[in-house]
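Incident log, entry 3
Record: Nitrate transporter (596 residues)
Problem: checksum mismatch between cached and fresh output.
Input:
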Amino acid sequence: MKLKMGTESQVEVNTRKGGLRTMPFIICTTLTLFFYFSLVTLSLNESFERIASYGSQTNLIIYLMTYYNMSAATGTSILGIWGALSSGLAIVGAIIADSYWGRFNAVAYGTIFTFIGMVILWLTSMIPQLTTLACSQFQHVCNGPTAFQLAVLFTSFAFTSIGAGFVRPCSIMFGADQLEQKGNPENKKIVESYFNWYYASTGVATMIAVTVIIYIQDRFGWQIGFGIPVILMVLSVSTFLIGSPLYIKVKTDTENLLLGLFQAGVAAFRKRKIRLPLTGCDDYYHSPYETEVLTPSKDFRCLNRACMIEDPERDLNPDGSTSNPWNLCSVERVESLKALIRILPMWSAGFMMFVDMNVFAFSVLQTKTMDRHIFPHFEVPAASFSVFLIIALTIWITFYDRVFVPLLSKYTGRPRGLSPVTRMGIGLAVSCMSMALSAITESIRRKRAIAEGHEDDPHALVNMSAMWFVPQYALLGIAEATHAVGQIEFFYTLLPKSMASIASAMYTVGTAVSSLIGSFLVSSEDWLTSRGGKTSWLASNINKGHLDYHFWILAFMSFLNLLYFLVICRFYDTGNDELPHVANEEECDYRLLHES
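Fresh output:
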């Protein structure tokens, strides 16, 4: 027996497959993967993973500076580009999973690619010939890495990026596939509970990653620090494959979604001179029998030409299908293209939020020069300070979901609390505040370091507690919690179910774009401020540099981005709080206003 899943895919229903018993295999695999990604990669799809991965990036930059003699700016730019590649490939992985492989194969291949990348990275810490000689403090010029050494390092990054491109958009959706039961009235509640536990589980994994594993790396070295994730990756691949007979595997779409969207654009362009009908009668438009969308929406009316029938005998086959998809496509395909276009303004408003997260690459250099003791005999590793961000994020999400939403629902009648757009705006505002606080804190730290005579010694310990950085981490955690969850919910609302994996990947692709923006900003700032023999603001010696100026620039850009967000909010109708999953005129909540 087969049941329709939206309009795109089908699920093979078998009472002996799927269900809660598959969760240990999927969650265990997911935890292991995210545990690893939290150590070596950037910006994973879900908010917990992405935040923790930035925390791990800060520790990896120490590895690049120590064993590859890279400057802080160069290492940050490389990690930013790597993060952009890892995030950008998520859209490729989503399309391949939906159109060709299926989510099970995508996750399986992704874990294998990630394992290979982890092994190569571990080998760089095991084989001395794969890294450069350490640079002593008496050397003015240090030997950089050779082409072969960089090739090995970048090969590790490439395999990891490919694996991440498949795992990120597909893992959470694959777990939801196991619980999908159309006839069960409790299905929606079960799936929502799954998402909650999914994020909670990955949050626990990433907390361990940015505390225990980073502590091991700092205390016992990179060989053991990278070796443990390799063992975990073996466990991840094995566990996931062992559970294969129990999984429900959603069949792939017979039509290429990306090609269909491109065909809709081409068809609309080819018919650009045709006049649109004055009425919304569905007889003018091509709607297959199985579709629920009969007439196109009124916004972006120029695209409606793509599904408009000019000559039924020429445009349609005897069975009712289109004879030339490059000249005529379905209303549903046009609506999918419109939905993708609608989210682009809000999607672009989130770039700056992700750019602000790149401060972790420099924050580790700050905390390494400060007193990191919580107790007299316990010192927090510099790269583990991002755990305060995760704690703040977890507390805020719990408070919002369990306390704030019920109160708001009781007194305002809004069952889902604040709208996704409102939460996104709050996140952007708090992020701006976090950058301003980071600039103030760094200015205080730098002045104290110079006053204590440490201007020429970037490794000297400043008489200042690193706990000064906790508030800015907490603010950034709250900003991420409100903005990220709101943005994912916004995408889920506006995009049709046939684009589920793409909706999941859009968040990650946004981090890819922001990583490129962040890398370009760092490289440009480093080049401009070091002209004429001056000390760069982003110098490896942060006591001579001016990280506070860099944070002020981020704060100003975040403020401009907030203004941009407020402007584009005027073009959205956010009066409804329900969350449908069909892109049609009657049900979509967040739509661009109709053309006048």
